[in-house]
Write a structure and sequence with these properties.
Blueprint lengths: L19 E7 L2 E2 L3 E3 L11 H5 L2 E3 L2 E5 L5 E4 L1 H14 L7 H14 L12 E11 L10 E11 L10 E5 L17 H5 L2 H9 L4 E5 L7 E4 L3 E6 L4 E5 L8 H14 L2 E5 L9 E8 L3 E10 L2 E4 L7 H14 L10 E3 L1
Parallel strand pairs: 9-10, 9-16, 13-14
Antiparallel strand pairs: 1-2, 1-3, 1-8, 4-7, 5-6, 5-7, 6-18, 7-8, 10-11, 12-13, 12-15, 15-16, 16-17
Helix pairs in contact: 2-3
The structure holds pyridoxal-5'-phosphate and 2-OXO-4-methylpentanoic acid.
């Protein structure tokens, strides 16, 4: 079957695809799970996800290679992160193998929607794990649902690999230091909506958050991690904080930068006052891929990186990362899972 989609024009929008995977946890165990053609779910009104936000999600992509095959990028890392999020919210873990098998099933079942090689578009998978069933007090659910749905997507930030302006959300926090910032849970994103709206309405790609204790060091973007490359082009630095999401893209970039481009890499504190150290900066994530940061506005100060264009190393790392993801460049062992 061929589907009628203008792959080059895809943004990051919902599309109701034919199949999703659904599995339930009850009485201490997961069922086998199955594909469903129903995009709507029915859950009890007392479900803790609805009241108390007991739920977590993930985001990963399937890529079409030049030879037409389809592959997932590091789904084991998303599975492990979902387990960490589950632990944080007292939810049962989804076994790693079950997660990967479900991601493959959904990709295969919707294969016509995996965008063609060369369009830059991908099939984005959205796993969710939620607490369901009749409850009213603040306590963990007794039943859970694990679901993965999919959509073909293009760039998350307008234009994709295009230098983008960001603004520091100095009067907002995304997550508390000992809270849920390091987990991929919905409340962090609900908390980012106001700052995100402000940023978008003022022409910025998104907001950048500072650490919630001193409002001094960079945390991350509302939807991606931050990295900077020093002006001597020797070091790639990225923030270290308990309240940012451990980005799989970020760890992949750190490894690529070190092993393939000989950069020193470090997770460390990065002061918002030290942006002069960097001549290149970027936002990285599954949806964002690598989005070069042209400038960061902080109060009255607008800091431009380099000449505001995509930096040379940022571009090299982008090409290497996406080359690996689309199967054009040899991947480090264990990064690619054929579907
Ligand atoms: N930070 C936040 C807040 C995110 O939502 C995401 C997206 O998943 C990331 C960072 C990037 O993480 P990853 O590279 O694992 O997609
Ligand atoms: C992802 O990159 O997968 C995310 O979950 C970011 C999301 C805010 C779209």
């Amino acid at each position: 079957m061929t589907v009628n989609i203008d792959w080059d024009k895809l943004g990051f929008d919902y599309m109701n695809l034919p199949y999703r995977y659904v599995s339930y946890w009850k009485d201490g165990q997961w069922d086998d799970g199955k594909l469903s053609e129903d995009a709507n779910i029915t859950i009890n009104e007392g479900s803790p996800i609805l009241h108390y936000g007991q739920g977590a999600f993930e985001g990963l992509k399937a890529y079409r290679t030049k030879s037409g095959k389809v592959q997932l990028f590091r789904p084991d890392r998303n599975a492990a992160r979902l387990q960490n999020s589950a632990d944080k919210l007292l939810m049962p873990e989804v076994p790693i193998d079950k997660f990967i098998d479900a991601a493959k099933q959904v990709t295969k079942a919707n294969e016509d929607y995996v965008p063609p090689y060369g369009t830059g578009a991908t099939l984005y998978l959205r796993p969710i794990l939620i607490g369901i069933g009749p409850n009213i007090g603040v306590s963990p659910a007794k039943e859970y649902m694990f679901l993965i749905f999919a959509q073909p997507v293009g760039p998350y930030f307008k234009g994709g690999m295009v230098p983008t302006k960001f603004i520091v959300a100095d009067s907002f926090d995304r997550a508390a230091h000992f809270g849920t910032g390091g987990s991929k849970v919905g409340g962090n994103y609900a908390a980012s909506l106001q700052a995100g709206k402000y940023a978008h309405e003022h022409g910025y790609g998104d907001a950048i958050y500072l650490d919630p204790i001193n409002h001094e060091t960079i945390e991350e973007v509302g939807s991606a991690n931050f990295f900077g490359i020093t002006t001597d082009k020797k070091r790639l630095l990225t923030p270290k904080s308990p309240s940012i999401l451990p980005s799989i893209t970020k760890y992949s970039i750190l490894q690529i930068a070190k092993e393939r481009f000989g950069l020193e890499t470090e997770e460390t504190k990065i002061s918002i006052h030290d942006l002069d150290e960097f001549s290149e900066a970027g936002a990285c994530g599954t949806a964002a891929v690598i989005t070069p940061i042209s400038s960061i506005t902080y109060g009255d100060d607008v800091h431009t990186f380099g000449d505001g264009q995509t930096g040379e190393l940022t571009e090299k790392i982008y090409n290497e990362l996406t080359g690996i993801q689309f199967g054009d460049v040899e991947a480090p062992e264990g990064w690619i899972y054929p579907v």
